[in-house]
Specification:
The structure is a single chain. Helices cover 58% and strands 9% of the residues. By secondary structure, the chain is α/β, with parallel strands linked by helices. Among the domains are: 211 residues, Up-down Bundle (Growth Hormone, Chain: A), CATH 1.20.1250; 199 residues, Vaccinia Virus protein VP39 (Rossmann fold, 3-Layer(aba) Sandwich). It has a 7-stranded mixed sheet, with helices on both faces. Helix 1 crosses helix 2. It is globular. It starts with a helix and ends in a 13-residue tail after the last helix.
Length: 742
């Protein structure tokens, strides 16, 4: 009977561990949404937030290591309970977004300071709770004390649940105020269960704890932990970059790699770990396929859903290897805190490298190869064989030549060629398996040649490629026109022929909704505001008596538009450029200033939600005259924004209408969808009559039941899931016409 009671007590610790991780992820997402509305969508905001979260997590692990080493869990558990109480009292009991205020310091420091003041203490305490509970279990009299690391799996399960439920449930059904109230209730339960655990679970004798000897850890073992932890983080972040830059910038797609990363911890660190031998035995094949798909993805000859599935499977196996090896080589519970300190350091440095360093040192997704290289180092640590041999050196040289020549032979999707490519890669890396150092050398060689690989494998052979924190910009000339791409998204194009260079192309051609409006003789727009620069195509419609203000987030886009395209130079209008997040920049514009305000900041298939809320639209309407027009470019393959905008227009008591895009036979004229907001009813009727724009009844649109605001948005409700399914349904394994994607 006593044994049963002791076994049940482990659930107190399970609940505490799960809740702490769940609440940690939830508060990250909640506070990030508040930041978006107050500081805009610049990378500096996200970069500062990411560094804050990772730095606080590492400091939490460092703190846990030092205090548990100094005081041990017997004395510290009560102090941690005090910290949980202190955090409960320190929680703000009003909307987090009200806490943010602007001060005259650099944006990054401002964001960092606001995060520190608002959730610094709660984030720090929650980040230490998992380690404290594991140390608690290790020194307890419970039967499960022999494997405290199982709680780490539960912690990651809590993180996984927090991540997945936020966009699918909490963000969908509750506004920020309600989310925070639910979060506070969860925190209260965390506190209750921690008190119960402290009161009901007995520890081993205090003197016995203090007399136990901590075994030293070899430098080799520390390097192994560090390399495996940094590799896992780099792999999941680099795959996130690949699927959002190279495949498709679809909303919420970043969740998938992070979910895979977290679930790999859950499976390998649970009470009965799942780490099948084939993952370790076949890891060289996985690395080979990783290298292959790194190259193939650049050609964009495979539909995105198929490419996404392939990358997800490879990432799962690679993360399972990293986490499985970490679990296999974990130390005794006496070195538990040192183990977590080292892997948290690896996670911090890995995220810092991918988020801040890689975009500055390389024009391609070099971090993916870096991750594979570090995994190969972890493999080499296990092997005492450091020599490679002449045969393997020749194979490495042949493989490099093969990789460089292959895209010149097979420029389009070819199933047989792909099978041959996979076979060659797997055979070569099977030879490398015996001496893993040769895998390191091969990956390092490809890493050094990554700029050349990127140039040869990329579709269109860009003559200029530049990467910064906002993406990878590629410029290439094809069939008489110059194209600007950001990942897979076309940001504009221009004819190379001087005679035709002033013809607007892509989404802005003269037959598009925006082209018809700007060329109409019935409307005279003196002041025009355009959010989103691209190649500056819309400037070509400018007249001599007009002033055009461009609002652009990325300063490098201005350099690209001026150096490689001539739309801005050839415009007859006076052009001004305002850099920074548009929503914040517009706050400095006087009331009723613009006659026409164009919102064209929706990069590809991603959605900056903070530009679609009622608060944002109110700002747009404030900046336009009573007869002014607000137009939003909402072309998107996988989501439909019209229900959101019709709902918000009704809530703000303005008129909304949408054009129905037509497919043009002209290859340089893209179909585009535009939504128009108008204050004046007579002008609204005139525009609908003249341009055949439609209201919600005519367009057969059902408005959202709930308007989007800074406190509420629901991306899931506007997904076109059928389009995603069509990618798989229409895929022909032996032939795929990438130019006719659904």
């Amino acid at each position: 009977m006593i044994k049963i009671k002791k076994t049940k007590k482990i659930w107190y610790l399970n609940v505490v561990t799960f809740l702490a991780a769940f609440l940690l992820f939830q508060i990250e997402l909640i506070i990030s949404k508040c930041l978006l509305n107050k500081f805009g969508g610049t990378y500096a905001v996200w970069g500062a937030a990411l560094v804050f979260f990772q730095a606080t997590l590492f400091l939490g692990y460092l703190y846990s290591h030092l205090v548990l080493k100094k005081f041990n869990i017997y004395r510290y558990r009560y102090f941690h309970l005090f910290l949980l109480f202190l955090t409960l009292l320190a929680l703000p009991y009003k909307h987090y977004s009200h806490l943010f205020y602007q001060i005259n310091v650099f944006l990054v420091f401002n964001v960092f300071l606001q995060l520190l003041l608002s959730i610094g203490l709660v984030f720090f305490v929650l980040s230490t709770t998992s380690i404290v509970v594991q140390a608690f279990l290790a020194e307890s009299e419970l039967p499960e004390q022999s494997n405290p690391y199982a709680l780490y799996g539960i912690s990651n399960l809590g993180s996984f649940a927090g991540l997945l439920t936020y966009p699918l449930f909490f963000e969908t059904y509750f506004n920020l105020d309600t989310q925070l109230n639910i979060w506070r209730i969860g925190y209260f339960f965390l506190l209750i269960f921690f008190i119960i655990a402290v009161k009901s679970i007995k520890l081993t004798n205090k003197k016995t704890q203090e007399s136990q000897i901590i075994e030293p850890i070899s430098f080799k073992e520390k390097v192994r932990w560090f390399s495996l932890s940094i590799a896992g983080v780099i792999m999941f972040l680099s795959v996130t970059n690949i699927v959002t830059y190279e495949i498709t910038p679809m909303p919420l797609l970043w969740i998938l790699p992070l979910c895979i990363y977290l679930i790999s911890f859950v499976l390998t660190f649970k009470q009965k770990p799942w780490y099948p031998p084939w993952i370790y035995n076949k890891i060289h094949f996985t690395i080979a396929l990783g290298v292959l798909f790194f190259c193939v993805t650049k050609q964009r000859n495979i539909p995105f859903m198929i490419a996404l599935i392939c990358h997800a499977v490879l990432l799962f196996v690679l993360c399972m290897f990293c986490q499985g090896e970490l679990h296999k080589h974990k130390p005794s519970s006496k070195n538990l805190t040192k183990f977590y300190l080292i892997i948290s350091l690896g996670g911090f440095i890995g995220s810092l490298f991918v988020s801040w360093i890689a975009p500055l040192i390389s024009g391609s997704m070099v971090e993916y190869l870096v991750g594979l290289f570090i995994i190969s180092i972890a493999l080499a640590i296990d092997s005492g064989k450091k020599e490679i041999g002449a045969y393997r050196i020749r194979l490495i040289i042949y493989m490099i030549i093969f990789v460089l020549l292959w895209p010149n032979v097979f420029k389009e999707y070819n199933f047989i060629a792909l099978i041959i490519l996979i076979t060659i890669f797997t055979l070569v890396y099977d030879v490398f398996k015996v001496k893993p150092v040769s895998i390191c050398v091969s990956i390092f060689s490809l890493l050094c040649l990554s700029p050349l690989i990127d140039l040869l494998w990329s579709k269109g052979y860009p003559f200029y490629q530049y990467r910064n924190y906002y993406g990878i910009y590629s410029i290439y000339d094809y069939k008489g026109r110059r194209n600007l791409m950001n990942g897979t998204t076309t940001h504009g194009a221009q004819y190379l022929n001087k005679k035709n260079e002033n013809i607007a192309l892509t989404y802005y051609h003269k037959y598009s909704a925006i082209g018809k409006l700007m060329t109409s003789e019935d409307y005279s727009f003196k002041r025009i505001g355009i959010v989103g620069l691209g190649t500056g195509t819309q400037a070509i419609y400018g007249k001599e008596d007009q002033t055009i203000d461009y609002f652009e987030l990325d300063k490098d886009m201005y350099e690209i538009a001026n150096k490689y395209f001539t739309y801005l130079k050839n415009s007859k209008s006076k052009i001004n450029h305002i850099f920074g997040d548009a929503r914040i920049s517009l706050q400095k514009i006087p009331d009723k200033y613009y006659d026409l305000l164009i919102i064209d900041a929706f990069s590809g298939d991603s959605v900056p939600v903070h530009l679609l809320t009622t608060e944002a639209i109110t700002e747009y309407l404030r900046c336009t005259t009573d007869e002014g027009i607000v137009m939003l470019h909402i072309s998107n393959k996988y989501i439909t924004l019209t229900p959101v905008l019709f709902s918000n227009a009704e809530a703000l008591n303005v008129y909304g209408c949408v054009n129905i895009p037509s497919r043009w036979k002209h290859r340089d004229f893209y179909p585009s969808e535009w939504f128009t907001l108008i204050k004046n009813k007579e002008q609204y009727e005139q525009l609908r009559s003249e341009f055949e724009w439609r209201n919600e009844e005519e367009a057969k649109i059902t408005k959202n039941e709930r308007t989007w605001s800074d406190s509420y948005s629901n991306i899931i409700s506007i997904f076109k899931f059928g389009k995603m399914a069509d990618q798989i349904k229409q895929f022909k394994i032996f032939y795929w016409d990438f130019n006719n994607l659904p």
